[in-house]
Automatic annotation (TrEMBL):
The keyword Transmembrane helix does not apply. Belongs to the SmpB family. PANTHER family: SSRA-BINDING PROTEIN (PTHR30308:SF2), TMRNA-BINDING COMPONENT OF TRANS-TRANSLATION TAGGING COMPLEX (PTHR30308). PROSITE patterns: SSRP (PS01317). The keyword RNA-binding applies. This is SsrA-binding protein. Required for rescue of stalled ribosomes mediated by trans-translation. Binds to transfer-messenger RNA (tmRNA), required for stable association of tmRNA with ribosomes. tmRNA and SmpB together mimic tRNA shape, replacing the anticodon stem-loop with SmpB. tmRNA is encoded by the ssrA gene; the 2 termini fold to resemble tRNA(Ala) and it encodes a 'tag peptide', a short internal open reading frame. During trans-translation Ala-aminoacylated tmRNA acts like a tRNA, entering the A-site of stalled ribosomes, displacing the stalled mRNA. The gene is smpB.
Length: 155
């Protein structure tokens, strides 16, 4: 059987880009059990309120909801359990340096398949204030209006 080489997005945290300024993002592996992988492949993962935390030199993703697999019976785990992320020590220490600064946090942006393995796109983010969100919405609306006007002129 031929391996897939493309990336297939399985779950996305759309609210993250609205609520946070994304400073840097990186790819990380995730430690899962078999029924969780099957459930994630079926698209039953939710990243909405999840975040990553560094404990004892290891990174864990918290509040990521993976629905129990229907045919998993006794092998299913707790849907909200902490899951370990797989990164090199140098990457973890760099992320630790970011998170010790005030206002920075680690947010998962998406779950995707890469060469048959589940990966997480992890971002270093800084929270937005309400006025920042309003400014971003105004910029987006202005860009949409400009694009619409350009399209009409080219006709």
């Amino acid at each position: 059987m031929k391996k897939q080489t493309g990336n297939k997005t399985l779950a996305e945290n759309r609210k993250a880009r609205h609520d946070y300024f994304i400073e840097e993002s990186m790819e990380a592996g995730i430690e899962l059990v078999g029924t969780e992988v099957k459930s994630i492949r079926a698209g039953k993962a939710n990243l909405r309120d999840s975040y990553a935390d560094i404990l004892n030199g290891e990174i864990f993703i918290r509040n990521m909801h993976v629905s129990p697999y229907e045919q998993g019976n006794i092998f299913n785990r707790d849907p909200l359990r902490d899951r370990k992320l797989l990164l090199h020590k140098s990457e973890i220490s760099r992320l630790l340096g970011y998170t010790t600064q005030k206002g920075y946090t680690l947010i998962p942006l998406s779950l995707y398949l890469k060469n048959g393995r589940v990966k997480v796109n992890l971002a270093v983010a800084r929270g937005k204030k309400d006025y920042d969100k309003r400014d971003a919405m105004l910029e987006k609306a202005a860009k949409r209006d400009i694009d619409r006007q350009m399209k009409e002129r080219l006709r």
